[in-house]
Amino acid sequence: MRQVSWSVDGETVHGILHPASGPLRGGLVATHGFNSDLRELGDLPAHLARHGTAVLAFDQRGFGQSEGEFGFTTAARAVADIRAALDQLQSHLPLGTPLGLLGHSLGGSYVLEAAAEDARVRAVVVAHPLDRLFDELNPLEKAGYHVVGRIAEARRRRGKSGGSIPFKVHYTDLFVDPEAVVRARAAGFLRPRVNLANYRNALQFSAVSSAHRVEVPALLITSAQDRVVRPTHQRRVFEAIPGRAMMLEHRSGHSCFGDREAIFLQDAIAAWLETHLVAP
Predict the structure, then answer these.
(1) Which of 4, 97, 164, 250 could bridge to 193 as Cys pair (CB 3.0-4.6 Å)?
(2) CA distance 141 to 150
(3) CA-angle at 213, arms to 207 and 216, nearest 5°
(4) pTM exceeds 0.90, yes or no
């Protein structure tokens, strides 16, 4: 593997390229979820590379080692990052190599939008997708977020920082395996605070609206053990995909690639890509 970087709208994006071992089957861009970075993907990129898929895992702008306003995300911004990552990956591969996308949580929702927009994408893997942020909040949290979000927007219109609030998700919420919690805390991939500039994106973005427009094979990964995104909301995203979609259920938590069934998921994704990430 090797570190790579590229620029999107004048900001540097950081990624790790995992070249395929043995015969090349395809290329995959992989991205993380909200308030996280590429380290949450665990050993998945390296495992897929050993099975013939070149993987470019990257930090979205504002997260991890990439530049940009800390913690700031919008669908348009993330899709621009994903499509630029496809450009970068494509530059390292032979002409005609089939390309796919993989995303986790909000990153999974974003790759659905990117797959709907970019004709280069031949297959998409989505783990624990978030449909609408406000659906995961209780009534008190929703009311509070509306108040502080509107205040933040008013401050930004005056050229000031919108500020931030504590992130409600903790490492213990992400995993079933206590040892995975310890490993994740040591890695430190979660941001402890939420940028309130994300308020408008939280109001407007819906993964279901993106899923309706996905025309390539899709694998959706979910678990009844998820304590961050309700499994019924993930199923709603799955049911919106018009055909050629498969659901894979497991017994790990939301951060599935570092939890107790990580190896099972690695093998399952590799097998699915062998069949579905193919040239037109």
Answers:
(1) 164
(2) 14
(3) 105
(4) yes
